[in-house]
Design brief:
Radius of gyration: 22 Å
Largest sheet: 5 strands, mixed
Low-confidence stretches: none
Bound molecules: zinc ion
Structural class: alpha/beta
Strand content: 15-25%
CATH superfamily of the largest domain: ATPase, nucleotide binding domain
Shape: globular
CATH class of the largest domain: Alpha Beta
Oligomer: single chain
Helix content: 25-40%
């Protein structure tokens, strides 16, 4: 996606996002000259993105004017595409979800049917203040080219230039990423700089993980990192939609479908423990339909399998963003570009 603003504007907006600031704060934190800050601030006030709001006393000298971000001055849309459902949320510049729409998708939907349904939902929430649309889609896909390679479990999707198709139909900038990546973007956005090394485990119709390593979303060389559901956990295990056998996703889904909740949550726990050993993450966020239906069981199942050393604490939580986490994160990808600080 194109950068929507000049660099200095984006830096100033990014700093204003974290709370009321003065022009002096902005100059100190951005490294811009006071003259440059004054110019940028005047332009942003003119565009309705910033507003003067009160003053701060600084001891000597006259009180300094505080500047605040106008959260609803621009909006973003984010979508989660599951194998059977499309969810679209509307967020403001603060990343707060203002509205949502959900529609079922037909079995084995093809690209034209999907784009038509996406366009219908987006048109229902269309607003002059929209910056763009983020799509959190089933992988594998390439987030740089916007092409879906072979979405697992969706047979009519092979090398589909989805970003281009969506932009043509919507007339808005579109950014595409894997659902697990947009979900970890949402958590990173919510928790801020304190979240450095985390995994988000998304258990929906499939099972995948989003990785935040050293403060950055880790996508790998081909946006294929996090296809953790398709690593082998049982040598003689059940067949998987990916064509292999004994994948974590297949073993989990089989247990869940046969009503073995303890077995299903234990598989996720064992898998997460492996991730903790491999990556040394200290935060685990659980998300997805299966988790949200039985949050306490999944929390307990995962906590029971984690390393027990007291110097290796791991915080496990269920995402407070609930069903919106993937779609909200997709909107936040759009906002991140607006702020010029993609993570
Ligand atoms: Zn598999």
């Amino acid at each position: 996606m194109r950068f929507l603003r000049g660099y200095n504007d984006a830096v100033v907006l990014g700093l204003a996002r974290s709370g009321a600031v003065t022009r002096v704060d902005l100059a100190e934190r951005s490294g811009l000259t006071p003259q440059a800050v004054s110019k940028v601030v005047a332009r942003l006030i003119d565009e309705g993105l910033l507003v003067e709001s009160g003053t701060r006393n600084v001891g000597v000298g006259k009180p300094r004017t505080l500047l605040k971000l106008v959260a609803d001055s621009r909006l973003a849309l984010g979508a989660q595409v599951e194998r059977d459902e499309l969810r679209v949320v509307l967020t403001d510049l603060a990343g707060d979800v203002l509205d949502r729409a959900v529609a079922p998708l037909p079995p084995d939907f093809d690209p034209p049917a999907f784009v038509a349904e996406l366009t219908r939902l987006v048109n229902g929430m269309r607003d002059d203040k929209l910056l763009g649309v983020g799509l959190g889609f089933v992988g594998p896909l390439d987030h740089r080219t916007g092409v879906v390679h072979d979405a697992t479990g969706l047979v009519k999707w092979h090398d589909v230039p989805l970003r281009e198709l969506a932009e043509d139909s919507l007339g808005l900038p579109v950014v595409l990423d894997k659902d697990t990546n947009t979900a970890i973007v949402a958590e990173a956005w919510r928790r801020g700089e304190e979240l450095r090394d985390a995994v988000l485990v998304l258990v929906g119709t499939g099972l995948g993980v989003g990785l935040l390593l050293d403060g950055q979303v880790y996508r790998g060389a081909r946006t294929n990192a996090g296809e953790f559901g398709h690593t082998t956990i049982q040598l003689d295990g059940p067949e998987c939609v990916c064509g292999r056998t004994g994948c974590i996703e297949a073993v989990h889904n089989l247990a869940a479908r046969s009503g073995d909740l303890a077995g299903a949550t234990a598989i996720v726990g064992l898998a997460v423990a492996d991730l903790v050993q491999l990556l040394d993450v200290d935060h685990v966020v659980l998300a997805g339909r299966a988790v949200l239906a039985q949050p306490e069981a999944y929390l307990a199942g995962v906590r029971a399998k984690l390393p027990t050393a007291d110097w290796l604490p791991v915080e496990v939580e269920v995402t407070p963003l609930g069903d919106d986490v993937v779609a909200a994160g997709a909107a936040m990808l759009v906002l991140s570009e607006f702020y010029g600080r993609p993570r």
